[in-house]
Amino acid sequence: MYSNKFSRLVLGLYGRKRSAVSGAVQSAAGRSGFSWTAVCKQRSLRLQRSSCPEVQHHALSSQISTRSASQTTVDPDEVRRFQSLASKWWDEQGEFAALHAMNDLRVPFIRDNLLNVHRARHPGKPLAGLRILDVGCGGGLLTEPLGRLGANVLGIDPVEDSICTAQLHASYDPDLRDWVSYRACTLEELSAEGEEEQGAGHFDAVVASEVVEHLADLETFAFCCSHVVKPGGSLFITTINKTNLSYALGIVVAEQLLRIVPSGTHDWEKFISPVELERLLESNGFSVQSVQGMLYNPVSGAWSWTNSTAINYALHAVKLRDDPQPDQAEESNPHPEDHTAATHS
């Protein structure tokens, strides 16, 4: 019964997808609250700094500290919500069942893209030698499988009880001891540590899966990701598009009708389109390599890849090795809309 109703709902909503997506994208800039002018000015200031490494390091450290002190990615309401769920992360039939199932897509997505960037092969431990930061790791649902692939993974989360859950669960598997570690902190706090043990440019990859739709400040998030990842390193994001279809299925159906996730888990105003996210990342020194749609079937409880990014999507970006002038970046990609037009169908 649920299967037939859900199928009819999806077909009906997909019939109106094009106008819904168009309306959301056209109005996104006005509702997003992003300050692209401020981002561009900050980028220009960085480019105009002295070429002396000591001056650059001091200036960047100062900029990170100032930004961390005045802006934060943490939304207190989100922290309270996840605090109440901190003991339930590893209940595969509970509130996070969809996240457990998502590992079937997101783990291979991360693994395969990293192997395309890093050619070294390690049989049995394909990600050996790579250092990964899992931002908003929760109870470690994604941290652990990445560790089992051989990566050295640090999971961070502002909810201390979630970190305790993650540490406790990892302790049951001695094989994870050398590969996985956790810290109760924010991304901006880690970023502000500079060149210390967990400092700037320390990670081969940063992962933020089902995280950005819960953050208070995406500009600070993108800025700090760029700071902690190595040049040539990767950024992986899975999140929810900002469309009428994502509201209908991601909030009305998933939260209110089928109760796949707790009511109030998502705020549609925090969703972001692939186009917006790509612009934000590119303004912070990343080049988006791929964007792929994801679809959850609440009947089977399984995820699958889809050509449409109207609801959920996964994104892979790489931090540029050089910091080109804005006009050079435009020359290297004279038609930035081509990629998004081809991918965001």
From TrEMBL:
It is found in: Mitochondrion inner membrane. Keywords: Magnesium, Membrane, Metal-binding, Methyltransferase, Mitochondrion, Mitochondrion inner membrane, S-adenosyl-L-methionine, Transferase, Ubiquinone biosynthesis. The keyword Transferase applies. S-adenosyl-L-methionine binds at residues 106, 136, 157, 209. It catalyses: a 3-demethylubiquinol + S-adenosyl-L-methionine = a ubiquinol + S-adenosyl-L-homocysteine + H(+); a 3,4-dihydroxy-5-(all-trans-polyprenyl)benzoate + S-adenosyl-L-methionine = a 4-hydroxy-3-methoxy-5-(all-trans-polyprenyl)benzoate + S-adenosyl-L-homocysteine + H(+); a 3-demethylubiquinone + S-adenosyl-L-methionine = a ubiquinone + S-adenosyl-L-homocysteine. InterPro entries: SAM-dependent_MTases_sf (IPR029063), UbiG_MeTrfase (IPR010233). One of its GO terms (molecular function) is 3-demethylubiquinol 3-O-methyltransferase activity. Gene3D superfamilies: Vaccinia Virus protein VP39 (3.40.50.150). Pathway: Cofactor biosynthesis; ubiquinone biosynthesis. GO terms for biological process: methylation. It comes from the Eukaryota. O-methyltransferase required for two non-consecutive steps during ubiquinone biosynthesis. Catalyzes the 2 O-methylation of 3,4-dihydroxy-5-(all-trans-polyprenyl)benzoic acid into 4-hydroxy-3-methoxy-5-(all-trans-polyprenyl)benzoic acid. Also catalyzes the last step of ubiquinone biosynthesis by mediating methylation of 3-demethylubiquinone into ubiquinone. Also able to mediate the methylation of 3-demethylubiquinol into ubiquinol. Component of a multi-subunit COQ enzyme complex, composed of at least COQ3, COQ4, COQ5, COQ6, COQ7 and COQ9. NCBIfam families: UbiG. This is Ubiquinone biosynthesis O-methyltransferase, mitochondrial. It comes from Seriola lalandi dorsalis.
